[in-house]
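Researcher: Re-running this chain for the archive, since the previous output was lost when a drive failed. Same request as before.
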Amino acid sequence: MTTYPLPLPHPIQPAPGSQLLAWEQEYTHIAWGGPRSTKTVRDHLHEGSRVLDAGCGNGRHLLPLSRRYNTVGIDISKTAIAASESYLKKSGQHSEHLISSVTELPFSNRSFEGIVCYGVLQHIFVNERRAAVSEFKRVLSPGGFLFFEAFGVDDMRYGGTEIEPDTFLRKNGIIYHYFTVKEISHLLGGFEIIKLEDTRSEKRFRGKLYLRHMIKLVARLF
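Model: Regenerated structure tokens:
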């Protein structure tokens, strides 16, 4: 498994291994919250397709995916993987689980028809994002689909200690990157973006209105 994060020529960066520790701590108190909708995946992939949940966390997407697809869930956090395995087992479902970074996937070329990557690439550095997308291209079959979701730059949570452009280190030790559509389009060179949602919505918190900005897309490998 890759040392996390990879070294970067930048004056501010977390100590080696600190991201892994931060996520282990984070998943000790993240509540399950129930499964998430996977309708977008169902709209594009046939039942029985082999699907990778790249950064599965505690299994909120992996659980419903496992009901329809031949799934594998990966995450750098062993705590998250253990929680995902437990939730799936309680629901009578099964998926293969592996502790792995998205930057070095332990799979053969053309192993999957679909990759789900929700809220993952926003938590790693630019060179890691490029490495992850390169790995996605390698393990996807031609014509395979990437399902992607991440924070946008107009999100109310934007800010903190900036360590790369639009990338911040929070007090909990976790990295947060905020995307533009143009950046994502460039990052996903070699993919055809077939569906894009660039969504801004208001959220009221303690009597004040804040903006949430999410970018979601479906892309097909050429």
